[in-house]
Amino acid sequence: MAPSRSPLNRPSIVAAMTELLGPHAVDTRDEQLKAASVDRFKKYTAVHGIYDGPVPAAIVYPSSTAEVAAVLRFAAENLVNVVPRTGRTATEGGLETVVEDSLVVDGSRMNKILSIDPVDMMATVQCGVGLQELEDILRAQGLTTGHSPQSKPLAQLGGLVATRSIGQFSTLYGGIEDLVVGLESVFPGGQVTRIKNVPRRAAGPDIRHIVIGSEGALCFITEVTVKLFRYQPENNRYFGFLVDEFSDGIDALRELITAGYRPSVCRVYSPEDARQHFAQLYEGKNVVVLVAEGPKGIADATAAAIEDLFAGRPHQRVDSRLIQQWFEGLNWGQDKIDAEQAAMLEHHHLGYTTEVSVDWSRVAGLFDAVMSRIRREFPRAGDLTMLGAHSSHSYQTGTNLYFVYDYTINSSPRDEIEVYHKPLNAIIVEEALRAGGSMVHHHGIGKYRTPWTQQEHGSAYYLLSTLKRAFDPQGVMNAGTIFPLEPRESTSSP
Ligand SMILES: Cc1cc2nc3c(=O)[nH]c(=O)nc-3n(C[C@H](O)[C@H](O)[C@H](O)COP(=O)(O)OP(=O)(O)OC[C@H]3O[C@@H](n4cnc5c(N)ncnc54)[C@H](O)[C@@H]3O)c2cc1C
User: Fold this and answer.
1) What's the pTM value of the predicted model, to 2 decimals?
2) Rounded to whole angstroms, what are the CA distances from 354 to 275, 389, 441?
3) 89 alpha carbon to ligand 1 midpoint, in Å?
């Protein structure tokens, strides 16, 4: 956590916000401020009512780009830390207010769908539009964004772009970075920038990538334009296979992808992970899940390639209806979050994940290294009730590994993060970096992987840190996110 650098005290910050935005747009209720000081990285302490970090001075709800600009101008002039937020599903501490008297700037009231264009195949929305709402409207018109993260019922477009999110159909449609056409953002000091919508251009570096994945640490995203595709679920073909070894499943995915096929869903689950997803069918084996999607000719060709691939490999076939049913219940809305909270309180038990990526040739090695090192070195290994992984997003050169770990907490709730979550996360991050992979595939760095940001980027850290200095010279955007707090700012690590 860090002390405020602002010359203004809390009441003056709140008064200034009330004057700028009006009282209806400024929330200072105690419970709301406490909840706004954390995200799902601290879900266990939060459910016990423990909020150790600084609570923000206020949550403010701008309703236009001009209001966002006014707030960011005030923040830069008065050295007030700003934490942008939209759908509040962040998992890596990106929403934590580690600086005293921060302002949480919530874009969820900027929730207009500005245009849906079925000729140029793009939709423009404000940052607070929920992806589920947009998808429901698009699908009724035979269109889709192709973006389907598990948090789709809750996440909003601003946060989805800011975290560089990815969805379950990514092998066909890509991650959000492949879907964003153009953007509007506000930079510290109030500078409004619109990156125009064009199919492609060679007018210098692709500046969309300054904004995509910036996690609220460079700018506030106000508007997003995404690509659209035709929605043709009638052509979908679902496949499930059981295979003996995790590496057999990875090998099958590699064969399919590098041969040029693009199934929309492309996954392999280790037996431990498979047990919680497919209890009735996994039989102690690894589960491969594939979906062929798109225009009928392409879906059929992809389905035929999947059949051919497994005809030549030892496997057991899974009823495709079970795969489709599983898939339809995969997403998380508020109901599942509420149920998880009740279960955490009752059973002192919870699950977390750490997602990384690595080249094909090193996937099996990384999987084995993480599994064996956790079992060997993690002092509370006896409290683990599940340790497994799946690959869920594949590319020509490699794939991601999404490690999942559940444990029973035999410590005080306050100590859960230090005793369990941080050491487990650290082992996975260290092993991914050791294997030459990336320490973070799609959740963002947040505040808990910052000790490794420099190692992640190596000599290219120069580029990243120069962006921060150039665009946020006062250091008022989501301090402690992506970049570690400077030692002089920090009184203890987050
Ligand atoms: C159950 C569950 C399942 C998930 N599944 C997936 C998944 O399949 N794929 C995936 O990629 N992620 C997943 N996530 C992680 C999370 O949902 C995504 O990272 C999502 O993109 C966050 O969007 P949000 O609107 O909730 O953002 P928030 O949680 O509000 O914010 C996330 C980050 O973005 C910044 N931010 C938010 N809005 C803005 C803005 N307007 N301008 C600038 N910065 C902003 C915040 O400061 C923060 O750092 C999952 C999370 C949960 C809880």
Assistant:
1) 0.97
2) 18, 9, 9
3) 5
